[in-house]
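In full, the data.
>
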Amino acid sequence: MLYPDTVEAEILVHKPWFVATMFGVVFAIFLAFNLTSTGFGELMRPVIGEPSQSGLYGRFAIAFIIALLFIFNVVLIGFASLRIQIAIVWAELLLLFLAFFETFHLSLPFIWQKLPFLISQGVVTTLYVSAISIIIASLIAILGAVAKLSTNGFAYAIASFYTSFFRGLPLLMQVYLIYLGLPQLGFVVGAVPAGILALSLCYGAYMTEIFRSGIQSIDRGQWEASRSMGFGFSLTMRRIILPQALPVIIPPTGNQFISMLKDSSLVSVIGVWELMFLARTLGQKTFQHMEMLISASVIYWMLSICLELIQSRIERHYARSKVR
């Protein structure tokens, strides 16, 4: 977050113009939809009468009440402290998502029956593929960044061609090219190694630019001082440059890992038994696709939240010197 503002100012959600604007926007949005046939229309029956026959009056009344409740909720939350505001908004959004999922009439017994296998096989494979891929991608990124910052024409040309090619192709295309193309050259690659290789090469290209920008963010004087003390290239990178560049590199690298965790679902097209593959196949026999897809979505979300917390902790560790 930004540094706390020391200037006293009125809270935005308590300003009359903001309240009136938000009320008008929310009212217009819900007036555009006919909600008289929903559960909210039934709740409004004492006011609008028979929902199906209430017409424009029913739509107007429902939109007005929803806008009023929304504004009342926002204004009340504005009186709370920052942490309480975050907790309340998260809780309310979570309840809205649960209410949305409830409309699918999901079979909870079926979900609980398939969930252990979905976790033990799908989640483990997803984390295994993603973890190995991010490690290989990081190593590729370090080499690529050093090559793009070097004065060696061959190294720069190879690194720039690599980043241009693998950032220019869709990841799914790369998965197919590696899994189906390499056997044409005599190299038979399994589904899991092919998926790991595709993810590593694709994300290594993106992370090369992350590492390059992180290294370039360090003042050139650091490099020159290190070299003047007799430090070699590798020692300068390991002890001087990279430790200072890590606070710049870690946030986007963490985002790349979270993105890779979700993009690992693309390797399901070549038969890897990861989370997405099992979510699609476990519900096919009984046509209960939504149960498995929503379960997989929640699992992906939980994994992403865990990674976000780990990333946040690492960022705080490296940002200790900047705390005022």
